[in-house]
# Entry
Amino acid sequence: MTISLSHCFLVVHDYDAALAFYRDVVGLEVRTDVEFEDNRWLTLSAPGQAGVELGLEIPGYFPHTSDEDRRATADLLAKGLLPGVIFRTDDCDKTFEKVRASGADVLQEPIDQPYGVRDCAFRDPSGNMVRFSQLPEG
# Structure
């Protein structure tokens, strides 16, 4: 038996703003973008890594979500308190400059972390933390 990661998800407040950030700024490729039953299935992958898709969904994506839970999720998203995502890059500093040039909210400029990576952090248009991590050479 084998097992592998196929999808992970981020909650976003606006599909189109998130799509523009993750596709046009980060450089992910759209894998699926389908509208159905007042919903949208939108996934992206890193180039060369089509087997792992990042799904974007709005608060209350699932029809059985209560109004209270939808509001609570939207509130957590607005506060930047939902889990984020970490991308691996081969050049943290270059990636930082590219993302910063887009106007993204900078949380952390590139630094060498004590746990062995060089990384930087931003907020996406919905407030999710997005980190870019570079492994040490050698």
About this structure: Helices lie at 15-25, 67-78, 92-101.
